[in-house]
Amino acid sequence: MLCAILGLLVPATGHAQQGTEAWRPDTRVAPGGPPAGNSVFSLPPNVTVVPRSAPTGGAQEVQLTAFLTDDAPPIDQGLVWHIFQDSEKDGAPVRHHRTVRDANPVIRLAPGRYLINVSFGRANLTRTLVVEQGATLNERFVLNAGGLRVSAHLGNGTPAPEAAVSYDIFSGETDQLGNRQRIMSGARPGLIIRLNAGIFHIVSRYGDANAVVNADVTVEAGKLTEVAITHPGATVTFKLVTRPGGEAQSGAQWSILDPDGEVIKESAGALPTHVLAAGSYVVTASHSGRVFRHGFTVQPGETTQIEVVMK
């Protein structure tokens, strides 16, 4: 089950900052930096050329400011600026010039061509800036970014244990082979993930087995998208006994198989516990050179113990 609630994060007036509290770095916000696997050079650059004036022979001041949307107030925290010096020669590598973590920095750049990337969480924008000798320049970077917060619930409506749920974020589009670009992995429920506006695919996993939910979500610029995911998984504990209700035998090796015989999960121990998607399974327990099999079915949201009798 998926529901999305969109709420305006940033007010349109510059003086009203209370609505941005969820975006501040002292809250539970994902770490910044350009998305894994995304080169800062992969985005189509916007080029700004500083008008030439009387030669001064020195560096020029450039002020950098970032915005969630075109009509939003400036972002005042959580920005990272990566500045690279480009070469006018074809094929020449770019050189990292500096990294700045101020929200609204004023930097001095010698005349030349630069690539400037600003990141706000997983949202980022890259532009090309050509600096010539002249007056101070004010550069606006409009990220068109929003936020995504995922909450996870069990089949009975109770919140899922946060430590037991993690999710990956992928691009909404697929390549010719049907693969998606991974944007973030291992995110926990409750975090606000800053993303560029667009469609994304979420893969949420509850536990360490096959309790997985997929969902497509849309992130809008300047807004927080809240997504509630319901995991209909069941918590199952396995126990190898010599008789019904007997003591669990140590040293057992366990394999959980689906109806087609595919291995879902392998583990060892006297009382292994796993979260499984609702359905039918076969579990095998290997002990002292013997293998014991038992078929079982689990229902959404239940917590149960499966006994495998050695006979």
List the helices and strands and how they pair.
Layout: E1 2-8, E2 47-49, E3 60-67, E4 79-86, E5 95-100, E6 106-109, E7 112-120, E8 123-131, E9 137-142, E10 145-154, E11 165-174, E12 180-187, E13 192-196, E14 198-206, E15 211-219, E16 223-231, E17 234-241, E18 253-257, E19 263-268, E20 273-276, E21 279-287, E22 290-298, E23 303-309
Parallel strand pairs: 2-8, 3-9, 10-16, 17-23
Antiparallel strand pairs: 1-16, 3-6, 4-5, 4-7, 7-8, 10-13, 11-12, 11-14, 14-15, 17-20, 18-19, 18-21, 21-22
How would you sum up this structure in a few lines?
The protein is mainly beta. It contains no helices and 23 strands. The chain has 3 domains: 112 residues, Immunoglobulin-like (Sandwich); 86 residues, Immunoglobulin-like (Sandwich); 76 residues, Immunoglobulins (Immunoglobulin-like, Sandwich), CATH 2.60.40.
Report on the structure:
The protein is mainly β. It has 3 domains: 31-142, Immunoglobulin-like (Sandwich); 146-231, Immunoglobulin-like (Sandwich), CATH 2.60.40.1110; 234-309, Immunoglobulins (Immunoglobulin-like), CATH 2.60.40.10. Helices cover 0% and strands 54% of the residues. It contains no helices and 23 strands. The protein has strands at residues 2-8, 47-49, 60-67, 79-86, 95-100, 106-109, 112-120, 123-131, 137-142, 145-154, 165-174, 180-187, 192-196, 198-206, 211-219, 223-231, 234-241, 253-257, 263-268, 273-276, 279-287, 290-298, 303-309. The strands form 6 sheets. Strands 2-8-7-4-5 form a 5-stranded mixed sheet, with no helix packed on it. A 4-stranded mixed sheet has the order 1-16-10-13, with no helix packed on it. A hairpin with a 2-residue loop joins strand 7 and strand 8. It is elongated, with a radius of gyration of 27 Å. 29% of the residues are buried. The model is unreliable at 1-44 and 52-56 (pLDDT under 50).
